[in-house]
Amino acid sequence: MDNILTIRDLKVAFQVRGRDAYALDGINIDIPKGKIVGIVGESGCGKSMTAMSIMGLIKSPGRIVGGSIDFCGNELTKMGIREYANIRGKDISMIFQEPMTSLNPVVKVGKQVMEAIILHEHISKAEAKQRVIEIFNEVGIPEAEKRFNSYPHELSGGLRQRVMIGMAMICKPKLLIADEPTTALDVTIEAQILRLMKRLCEESGTSIMMITHNMGVVAEICDYVYVMYAGRVVESAPTKILFNETAHPYTSGLLKSIPTIGKKQKRLYTIKGNVPNILNLPKGCRFADRCDLTQNICLSDRPKDDYITDSHMVSCFLHKRIEDERSCIKIKKYS
Amino acid sequence: MREVVLRLKNIVKEFPTSKKNKKVHAVSDISLDIYENETLALVGESGCGKSTLGKCAIGLISPDKGESIFLGENIYNKSGNELKEIKKNLQIIFQDPYASLNPRMTVGEIIAEPLITHEKRLSKAQVKEKVLELMEDVGIRKEYYNRYPHQFSGGQRQRIGIARAIALNPKLIVCDEPVSALDVSIQSQVLNLLKDIQEKKRASYLFISHDLSVVNFIADRVCVMFLGKVCEIGDTDDIFEKPLHPYTRLLLDAIPSIENAGKQKEILKGDIPSPIDVPTGCRFHTRCPYCSEICRTKEPDLRQANGRYVACHIVK
């Protein structure tokens, strides 16, 4: 499959009190063309940091200390500011969680969206305006021509997010990074936005990297999922396989702790403890002290990324693939 | 029949806007009973008035009209010591554990405050003993007595907020989106804790949330709100199994879930109407797929249907 983005062994560190704290510690992510890839995990696991690395927006004291990000043959980690400016907003664009804070409150939304296209394509203002109205129609903004002259505060949260998506999609990017795009929205509006994103992805062939903490959102629209924990990818698989053949104890813990509608539960499953501090990470597996199935090896050694099938990666000692048989064995079965 | 702890009668709350003749209709004529030792959930989208109603219930804001009757007495008619005595029994847990704890007070001081205000007969040592007991109840280690809120994670802070709310053994706790600022793994810990505490302290919860899966887990009864009005009230199981009001059904349908992924579903069109210019007739009619003539003109009353209350012309 054609990948438009390949991240290999990416490491991002922050200098804290003279020491390097790794916010991302060797992650590998592939984003195939025209697919929606979900990145899930709890706060502080490095989801947004991954997005920021791709966009080249890591701010000091943070820096990329190793690994590579290949975007359609361009190495992003070594790219200069000017080259980056040509890619950002054109080939890779991004939408954020809170559309109110990412739009300029004193500029009409139409003009803000126009900015993106005028910057990247040499077209006249009239043409640009036409394109903006077209994209507004496409993302489902009613009365697009009237809305062109609205200010962000005059729009509802759902409409603002549609404006953001319009802005991100107007240059027909190859990759759209969506950082919790529906978290601030109500469920009925969330459903509308998710459907819109899926449709745009199918129609334009844009790949979407969907950062979220909501497993429901992942199940709804993602083709492929990466589960992150404390700066590492702990499991990745096609969505169905991840939910049906969950391998990593963290993923299964996360899934079990979500209350399910239509199921009467006396108590919810809980993952004990808290997410470790990245300044003080355990020596072995980072999940070891919260895991129900910890063995001695988990405390002393770092698990490697093991592909238990060709598309299912898990970083856990409970699983091992025997190369010559090309099959996976679970060392210990758990539920 | 179980005892009613708090009865809300015809609560109306409107907020002024910058325009003289326009008002935000936050809560429009809502009546509710909250029974002893039950969890009643208020659900709905942003701006539907759930938090306003919760705050009216315990007298944090006073409504324009209506009564909140706690054990037979309208709390809005009370003042001074009488009101203080009532308020002991009505507590609240807020959404944002970062904003609801005073950053300059230690955990011990935060949890002790309600005790110092209301239980004047307790000596300092007794207060401390009680605080430590409460910390144990909510799962905060006793060694942290002198720590400040910023030294805790979000989940731990919410536990501190819970300890403060249960300090006086209240009859009713309003939980205003208590887990929506927390990560899933922490959310489940806090939800379990709330359940345990209810069992132990026999308090009632008015649980405000927009997350229906959380509500399904914790609530005995659910009240679905839309634009300041009640759409449907009934037992949690009934409502989740067979929602009657079209809004309830579409709300349940809209939740992205692992179980229903990929299923074709009806998606609610349009935005939530503004609570300033509320639609005529049924407030939901602008988004309702079953809207008929009567819905546009006549506001439906809340009436009994299949063992619960529904406000819809269509539901038979």
TrEMBL record, chain A:
Name of the featured protein: ABC transporter ATP-binding protein
Organism: Lachnoanaerobaculum orale
Highest taxon of the lineage: Bacteria
UniProt-recorded Gene Ontology molecular function terms: ATP binding; ATP hydrolysis activity
Keywords: ATP-binding, Cell membrane, Membrane, Nucleotide-binding, Transport
Cellular component per GO, a single term: plasma membrane
Keyword Membrane: yes
Gene3D superfamilies: P-loop containing nucleotide triphosphate hydrolases
Biological processes per GO annotation: peptide transport
Compartment(s) where it occurs, according to its Swiss-Prot or TrEMBL record: Cell membrane
Automatic annotation (TrEMBL), chain B:
GO molecular function, one term: ATP binding
Keyword Nucleotide-binding: yes
SUPFAM superfamilies in alphabetical order: P-loop containing nucleoside triphosphate hydrolases (SSF52540)
Tagged with keyword Transport: yes
Residues of the ABC transporter domain: 6-252
GO biological process: peptide transport; transmembrane transport
Keywords on record: ATP-binding, Nucleotide-binding, Transport
NCBIfam families: oligo_HPY (TIGR01727)
UniProt cross-references to InterPro entries, sorted A to Z: AAA+_ATPase, ABC_transp_ATP-bind, ABC_transporter-like_ATP-bd, ABC_transporter-like_CS, Oligopep_ABC_C, P-loop_NTPase
Family annotation (SMART domains): AAA
Similarity comment: family membership: Belongs to the ABC transporter superfamily.
UniProt-recorded name of the protein: ATP-binding cassette domain-containing protein
Pfam families from the UniProt entry: ABC_tran, oligo_HPY
